[in-house]
Amino acid sequence: MIILQGFRKLTKIEVFLFKRKNLGSKLIQRCFCEENTMKDVDFENVPIEQIRNFSIIAHVDHGKSTLADRLLEFTGAIKQNTGQHQVLDKLQVEKERGITVKAQSASIVYSFKGKPYILNLIDTPGHVDFSSEVSRSLSVCQGVILLVDANDGVQAQTVANFYLAFGKDLTIIPVLNKIDLKQANPERVCHQLKNLFDIEAKDVLKISAKLGIGIKEVIEQIIEKLPHPKVDRHKPFQSLLYDSWYDKYRGALSLIYVNSGSAKVGDSISSCHTKKSYEIKTLSLLRPEEHSVDRIVAGQIGLLGCNMRNIKEAVVGDTLHVTSSPVGPLPGFQPPKSMVFAGIYPANLSEHTDLRKAIEKLTLNDSAVTVDIDTSPALGQGWRLGFLGLLHLEVFTQRLEQEHGTEAIITAPSVTYLIKLKATKETVKQGTNEIFINNPAVFPEHIRIEETHEPMVLGTIITPDSYLGPIMQLCQERRGVQKQAVNIDNDRVMLQYDLPLCEIVLDFHDSLKSISSGYASFDYEDNGFQLSSLVRMNILLNNVPCEELSTIVHSSKAQLVGRQMVLKLKELIPRQMIHIAVQATVNGKVLARENIKPYRKDVTAKLYGGDVTRRMKLLAQQAAGKKKMKMVANISVPRNTFIDFLKNDDFK
Ligand SMILES: Nc1nc2c(ncn2[C@@H]2O[C@H](COP(=O)(O)OP(=O)(O)OP(=O)(O)O)[C@@H](O)[C@H]2O)c(=O)[nH]1
């Protein structure tokens, strides 16, 4: 019966029925639905004052999706979720990793003081890589639930998300979750909220999403505290396309927020961005399953299908209007910016077409991934993809494997650098001397370079103060510059550092977690480019540069990285008939060198005793042969060696 905590108490007759007729879950379900939930609501005519659009924002794992499930159950939108997985986490990778990747929406209905309210809930991802999803979701909300784990307390993403909502002028309902945990310390967390955000303890709700405690209070505060959308149903139809995905049968579907007017199935609508027109084929509300409606009105969120063939036509941030009454565009969004790039190649050359199809399909639903064709002499034809962060890259490749059964080789991730070239006739002709590169293979010759700039982030770390020393050392090793250190309570500190992006993309988060026994949390935001001394490191095999192995490094780290690279290659490249010199060079200067000894065939084996000069002559012939071979032979580095090397992430 634990599930019933926090919900309406059973009446005596219900308890009786429960025991006698064993109505079990049906009865429990009725308890959720009966009192405040409504099955049939006239969605078209619900007054604007009875609509609330809100999001749940929190640090990763603080319980957003669990709370979303409880809200849906409590209002009867879904049956009680007995499975382990969250209803709004639909992707396999979300279920497996327990993280939310795509924001989802659900319209729930609740009767309060005799009136039906439509509460549009937008579940958002918590991980830093997906902050563009959070930001998009917030632009259609009037308020948020700021959910904080009562045990973990305020974490780095709580801070980032709070300021995101605060900056958009949204009403914030602070909620402490997981109060059922033994170690929960609501007072301490309230103190942190007061210190950091000036939130009063009396305004903080205390709930357990897992056990369903305090859910009713959350819903009623949403109704009482959040403002209704400021929209006008009498004006022409104007809606913001804030998410889109691809459906096999219906083409691209657009999730829209109606800012004014209304539209119905059969209307012709146009896009402000592409100027194309379409006929509305389907309209539905997400409850959370699709619920078809004929008309959608201002203040609502709905799913619109209009036979868009390609996801590129459903541009996120676009404004849609009825073709016959044109309106101006609503403020759109900054397109998500790719932060991390990696090459993707088929593991088997014969699987190139399968991999291409899989990438095409996945990018249909993930417009944040950028795709460029890339080729490598060693790995063949492939692609260079851009991602929002490392987790985004991992999730994408996991989906490639799980949903499309393809096996891909992913090269070590890199970031985008800004290079300013010396003025030449060519730069004058092009009108700019700035180039952005994310592939070391196209890094210009050093004599052509005026300045190099690297992308920076402003990182926020929240940690118990006992780990302060090692964390500051880690940031220093990663070329970080401290900006701020604030005590958020008696034993917790918030640090802010300017850090080069390339220093954090690979393993910064893991290192931070391991040196703080998992207690420190990290979040970052883009902080532009900064002048920096960058060089291209080449790897030469017997003086022949190997493009795939070149990399861009900060000059202060060149020596170290070069040493590590040649040692690793010495380990990986199999011995061959000839001697191989592996060199790491910067601007023609050798920084590190290792030798791989050749096999030595015993050419004198067939001589039994005999004259020593014959033996020497044979050895001299062998040496000459090898010298000749060294000059003409291509060193054949097996494809697997490249794969092992490129996958290696020790070079930071
Ligand atoms: N004890 C306890 N555990 C909870 C509570 N709420 C959520 N959890 C657990 O916390 C973990 C994370 O919950 P989620 O709902 O997936 O968290 P999330 O914030 O949606 O995570 P992301 O989608 O990755 O951002 C799960 O194991 C939940 O079962 C609670 O009230 N009490």
From TrEMBL:
<protein>
    <recommendedName>
        <fullName>Translation factor GUF1 homolog, mitochondrial</fullName>
        <ecNumber>3.6.5.n1</ecNumber>
    </recommendedName>
</protein>
<feature type="binding site">
    <location>
        <begin position="123"/>
        <end position="127"/>
    </location>
    <ligand>
        <name>GTP</name>
    </ligand>
</feature>
<dbReference type="InterPro" id="IPR005225">
    <property type="entry name" value="Small_GTP-bd"/>
</dbReference>
<dbReference type="GO" id="GO:0005743">
    <property type="term" value="C:mitochondrial inner membrane"/>
</dbReference>
<dbReference type="Pfam" id="PF06421">
    <property type="entry name" value="LepA_C"/>
</dbReference>
<dbReference type="InterPro" id="IPR013842">
    <property type="entry name" value="LepA_CTD"/>
</dbReference>
<keyword id="KW-0999">Mitochondrion inner membrane</keyword>
<comment type="similarity">
    <text>Belongs to the TRAFAC class translation factor GTPase superfamily. Classic translation factor GTPase family. LepA subfamily.</text>
</comment>
<comment type="function">
    <text>Promotes mitochondrial protein synthesis. May act as a fidelity factor of the translation reaction, by catalyzing a one-codon backward translocation of tRNAs on improperly translocated ribosomes. Binds to mitochondrial ribosomes in a GTP-dependent manner.</text>
</comment>
<dbReference type="InterPro" id="IPR038363">
    <property type="entry name" value="LepA_C_sf"/>
</dbReference>
<dbReference type="Pfam" id="PF00009">
    <property type="entry name" value="GTP_EFTU"/>
</dbReference>
<comment type="similarity">
    <text>Belongs to the GTP-binding elongation factor family. LepA subfamily.</text>
</comment>
<dbReference type="InterPro" id="IPR027417">
    <property type="entry name" value="P-loop_NTPase"/>
</dbReference>
<dbReference type="InterPro" id="IPR031157">
    <property type="entry name" value="G_TR_CS"/>
</dbReference>
<keyword id="KW-0342">GTP-binding</keyword>
<feature type="domain" description="Tr-type G">
    <location>
        <begin position="49"/>
        <end position="230"/>
    </location>
</feature>
<feature type="binding site">
    <location>
        <begin position="58"/>
        <end position="65"/>
    </location>
    <ligand>
        <name>GTP</name>
    </ligand>
</feature>
<dbReference type="GO" id="GO:0006412">
    <property type="term" value="P:translation"/>
</dbReference>
<dbReference type="InterPro" id="IPR035647">
    <property type="entry name" value="EFG_III/V"/>
</dbReference>
<feature type="binding site">
    <location>
        <begin position="177"/>
        <end position="180"/>
    </location>
    <ligand>
        <name>GTP</name>
    </ligand>
</feature>
<dbReference type="GO" id="GO:0003924">
    <property type="term" value="F:GTPase activity"/>
</dbReference>
<dbReference type="GO" id="GO:0043022">
    <property type="term" value="F:ribosome binding"/>
</dbReference>
<keyword id="KW-0496">Mitochondrion</keyword>
<dbReference type="GO" id="GO:0005759">
    <property type="term" value="C:mitochondrial matrix"/>
</dbReference>
<dbReference type="InterPro" id="IPR009000">
    <property type="entry name" value="Transl_B-barrel_sf"/>
</dbReference>
<keyword id="KW-0472">Membrane</keyword>
<keyword id="KW-0648">Protein biosynthesis</keyword>
<keyword id="KW-0378">Hydrolase</keyword>
<dbReference type="InterPro" id="IPR035654">
    <property type="entry name" value="LepA_IV"/>
</dbReference>
<dbReference type="InterPro" id="IPR006297">
    <property type="entry name" value="EF-4"/>
</dbReference>
<keyword id="KW-0547">Nucleotide-binding</keyword>
<dbReference type="Pfam" id="PF00679">
    <property type="entry name" value="EFG_C"/>
</dbReference>
<dbReference type="InterPro" id="IPR000795">
    <property type="entry name" value="T_Tr_GTP-bd_dom"/>
</dbReference>
<dbReference type="InterPro" id="IPR000640">
    <property type="entry name" value="EFG_V-like"/>
</dbReference>
<dbReference type="GO" id="GO:0005525">
    <property type="term" value="F:GTP binding"/>
</dbReference>
<dbReference type="GO" id="GO:0045727">
    <property type="term" value="P:positive regulation of translation"/>
</dbReference>
